[in-house]
Structure formats: C-alpha cells, structure tokens
Amino acid sequence: MKNEVKQRLSKKSHFRLFGMFFLLGVFLVSQLNAQAQERTINGTITGTDGIPLIGVSVVVKGTTLGSLTGTDGKFTLSIPASSQTLVFSFIGMETLEVPVTGEKVYNIVLFQSTVGLDEVIVIGYGTQKKSDLTGAVASVKMDELKGRSIVNVQQMLQGTVAGVSAISESGLPGGNLKINIRGIA
Predict the structure, then answer these.
(1) Radius of gyration (Cα) for the chain, nearest Å?
(2) Where are the alpha helices (DSSP H) in the chain?
(3) pLDDT (tens digit, 9 = 90+) per residue, 58-92?
(4) What angle do CA 149, 171, 155 make, to 5 degrees?
(5) Rounded distance, CA 94 to CA 85, Å?
C-alpha cells in the first residue's frame, strides 16, 4: 500500500512539474510575441542649416504614441509593428510625414514654413492666424524706428503704438519707463 501511495504521489508531482513547465513555456512565448510586435526607433532631427532642433514632436500617425527631441535633436520611440507613418512637427517648420520602413534610425531634415509673418501672430500660448485673432493687435515696423536712439523695448514702444503710453519715471535719459496699456484702469 505504501508503494501504491508513493506511485500516486510521484505521478501527481510529475504532472504538477509538467504543468509548471508548460505554463512557463506559454508565458515565455507570449513575451517573445509581445516584443516582436513592438520595436524601438531613434534618430536626429535638424533644420536645413544642420543645427539640431529641440522639442520637435514625433508621433505615430493615428495614435497618441509620441516623443519629443532632446537638446541634441535626438529622439527614441517604441512603435507597434503595424505602424505605417511617422509625423514630425515643429512650430515654424513644415510638418513632415515619413513612411515607416524596416529602418531603426531616422535622420530627418525639417524645412522652414513659408507662412508670411503678416499672416501669423505669436501669442502667449502658441500661434494664430491674424484673421482669427480677436482683440487689439499692434505692430511696429523697423522702418518706423530708423533715426531713433533706442536703448530698450520700452523706448521702442514710446509714441509708436496706439493705446500705449510710456512715461519716464525719473525724467533722466535711459531711466525706467512706466508703461500703461489702454489707460490706467
């Protein structure tokens, strides 16, 4: 009877051991499969002058997967194997769409956008077309400033922009100016 019990325990131990190895094998195969579905790409993004661009957005088109370039213009991104297009965008540069190939390194050159300065206004949180902007906007052309001795931005605005008054606090040349926009209130 003891031998019979030992044989049953031995069979159960072998079955359990086989089951653990089977589960371990399934786990390893699933991990390899998951890694095969994703790959890592990297690269450098520069302007036409060869200078690396900082903060360029690199996104897999149609997803929220993305990265930004660092101070050296380099990026690293893990993308799904099914990815078809990468989108590179940066303010003031043309957006570029690049098809995903088998390459691991993408060295990209972005070109300056051809939008005229009269059409775009830089605001505190991005850019906007001048036609879409609501509110008061003024511009000072450099031709208007010729022949004036200007030490700082405050002096540049003095007497050139409607609704802006720049008054010297001390009356001394080069002294600080107090600037009021659209009145004191």
Answers:
(1) 32
(2) 2-36, 153-157
(3) 999 988 889 999 999 999 999 888 888 999 998 88
(4) 30
(5) 16
Residue 14: phi and psi, rounded to 5, are -65, -40
pLDDT (0 to 100) of residue 109: 93
Q: How far, in Å, CA of 184 to CA of 162, rounded? A: 14
Residues 6+ apart with CB under 8 A from 174: 151
> Measured between alpha carbons, how far is residue 154 from residues 78, 135, 164, 172, 180 in Å?
48, 21, 10, 14, 11
Residues 133, 140: Cα–Cα separation, whole Å: 18
pLDDT tens digits, residue range 127-183?
566 666 666 667 777 777 777 777 666 666 667 777 777 777 777 766 777 777 776
Residues paired with residue 123 on neighbouring β-strands, in sequence order: 126
Collapsed DSSP state (helix, strand, coil) of residue 83:
coil
Residue 75, burial from CB neighbour count under 10 angstroms (0-12, 13-18, 19+):
buried
> Residue 102 in contact with residue 69, Cβ under 8 Å?
no
